Amino acid sequence: MMRRVLSSGRVLAGLILVILVLTCAIAAPWIAPHDPDEQDLIAMLLPAAWQAGGDASHFLGTDGLGRDVLSRLLHGARIAMTVAVTASLGALIAGATLAYIAGYLGGRVDWLIGRAIDVWMSFPPVILSLILMTGLGTGARNVILAIVLVDWTRFCRVLRAEVIVTARRDYVTAARLVGFSHFRTVIREIVPATIPLLVTLLTLEMGIAVVVEAILSFVGLGVKSSQVAWGQMIADGREAIYQAPWNLLAPVLAIFLTVAAFNLLGDGLRRTLDVRMVEGRE
């Protein structure tokens, strides 16, 4: 299976890009050429190094306070990846737990959880995130909590349908006949069968989390002002888009590449791990 996964062009392209962004995030304190918060009012709005008037020490130029754009871009990756990984795992745990309970037990439990999903998903996700952040306050932890509270439904809705189908398989019935408890049946028989779907949903959710974090930071409801975030960079860069376009273009491209990486990885995993799609191609 691992060989089939790695033979997919989508998986390889997405994995390479994700590793690249993750490496930049982890190594940002060592590879960033400047302190991301260091201001130089004499060197405000410098163009990129390859443009006329550019400075080689500021490869992507500087912002309106003379801060190095490349350094802020690298440090912004730390917030983006932290939120993407942590929030996605939190949403997966919450949504998957409820999905296994609803899909396996069925009946009133399934009906109650299904209605809760319908009600929660009736609110636009971004609007609901903004409302939650207004009450919770700014900060990376609150951004993560808001994404978990909003996006658990993505996992629960999709996984619940898969669990319902899997719970009707003959091997699950056989496990119950030989005396497996409900918990053991779910852990030993149903969870392994749904892992490919969970992995795919997780990677796709990471891309969504990056976008949501950027939107919240853009409107000032994301991370604190003392932290560097791509959404903040976009908000600052739009004020000087004509004098220093890379202030805006750099974080936009970073978000685009990161989200594209997670989407490529998720789509590639879906195509290689989904047995039905593999059998269809064969």
How is the topology of this model organized?
Elements: H1 2-6, H2 9-31, H3 69-105, H4 107-121, H5 125-136, H6 140-167, H7 170-177, H8 182-218, H9 230-237, H10 246-273, H11 275-281
Helix pairs in contact: 2-3, 2-10, 3-4, 3-6, 3-8, 3-10, 4-6, 5-6, 6-8, 7-8, 8-9, 8-10, 9-10
Could you explain the architecture of this structure?
The protein has 282 residues and is an all-alpha fold. It is built from eleven helices and no strands. The chain is elongated.
* SSE arrangement, N to C: HHHHHHHHHHH
Number of domains: 1
Poorly predicted regions: 276-282
Mean pLDDT: 87
CATH superfamily: MetI-like
- Spatial separation of the terminal alpha carbons: 15 Å
Class of secondary structure makeup:
mainly alpha
* Percentage beta strand: under 5%
Report the biggest beta sheet as strand number plus sense, adding barrel if it closes: none
Number of strands: 0
**Rounded Rg:** 22 Å
Shape type: elongated
Q: How does CATH name the architecture?
A: Orthogonal Bundle
Short key terms for the protein model shown above:
11 helices, MetI-like fold, elongated, 282 residues, mainly alpha
How would you briefly describe this protein structure?
This protein has 282 residues and is mainly α. It has helices at 2-6, 9-31, 69-105, 107-121, 125-136, 140-167, 170-177, 182-218, 230-237, 246-273, 275-281. The chain has eleven helices and no strands.
